[in-house]
Amino acid sequence: MLALAMPKAISCAGAWDIWNPYGWLNAAPPMAECMALNEFGFFLAVAFAPLAFLWLAIAVFLQSAELKEQRSAQVAQLEEAAQHLVLFLAEQVTKRRRELINKVRLKLYDVGEPQHRDIEVTSLR
Fold it and tell me: What's the whole-model pTM score?
């Protein structure tokens, strides 16, 4: 469309005073077959409207694909974070379990000990 419109636009440039906006040069008189500048603008708008719509549709499809990729990456990241959290909590539970077992063992050990243990600890200071 543009290839068909450009020769017409170039030939009508004198009639539209594009090359000579202030009338300093002797421009050719307006030709009868030239359309007005606003009509030519309307023609270009109609000619490029499908291209603009196609560009918009392609942009929407590309953004949709990018959003799907982002969403899948975020889901993978959340799954990995959940796995790390499970491992961390399992380690904490194991650590706390060992601490409780050691406390119970110490208390069982302290039951059979005499009460002089506090005196020995203070004398070591």
Answer: 0.46
